[in-house]
Amino acid sequence: MPDYRILHEAGYNVLTYDMRNLGHSGTGNGGIGSGGRFEARDVVGSLMYARGDEKLKDMTIGLFSRCQGSNATMFAMQMYPEHFEEVRCVVSPQPLSVGVTMRRTLERLGSGERIDELEEKVRLIVSFRFDEMSPVEAAKSVTVPTFLYQVHDDLMTRPSDVRAMYDNIPIAEKKLVWIHGTTARWDGYLHFQREPKEMLDWFERHMR
CATH number for the domain including 168? Predict the structure, then answer.
């Protein structure tokens, strides 16, 4: 919530929603998550809502897509590129690939050799393999100025995962900022509250 207050006080109108199947959002996709693939439809839905609402339709649009929301935004750009033609920019804290996170978790539990077994169990539920839930390939479809930031030593992922997404974004107007001095993923979520200037400058530059 402090993130939205910062954006509001900077002069932005904020449209936000809970991720599908969580919080106050309704049930969808059989109650399962997909690392951003199914959730991409809700990103498009929010854009359609904003453009169709009489009070919102003439507003300039930028996206603040956090974590799985970042994944969902990249997948949405891959699957529904026509909806992003008038989106000015994206700020994306901490995207991650499901497979990398699952592997890191098993390694910390001393069960890294069981990653294939886990992947098969997940596939039977959601119908996707781990590589199909990674936004690394989808990042090639990003055509909007994009600012990524990530805790470099985050215990839940690896720097190479976010770096691969960044490298695959095929436009020059992109930025990657590493957060050092911590291994806690949550410090990445708090980064905007603690040091919002860079991100606010990004929005200001691209949403004039």
Answer: 3.40.50.1820
Tokens of 7: 């954006």
Q: Which residues, 6 or more positions from 125, have their beta carbon under 8 angstroms from its beta carbon?
A: 32
Range of the domain at 194: 2-206
pLDDT tens, position by position, 59-81: 999 999 999 999 999 999 999 99
CA distance 12 to 20: 24
> 182: left (phi > 0), else alpha (psi -120 to 50), else beta?
beta
The rounded distance, in Å, linking the Cα atoms of 60 and 15 is 12
Q: Exposure pattern of 116-146 as b/e (b: 16+ CB <10 Å)?
A: eebbeebeeebebebeebbbbebbbbbebbb
Tokens of 164: 């691969």
Regarding pTM above 0.85, the answer is yes
Q: Provide the number of structural domains found in the chain.
A: 1
Sheet architecture: strand order including 87-93: 61-64, 87-93, 146-151, 174-179
Contacts of 144 (CB under 8 A, 6+ apart): 63, 77, 84, 87, 88, 89, 90, 171
Q: Which two tokens stand for residue 19?
A: 């991720």
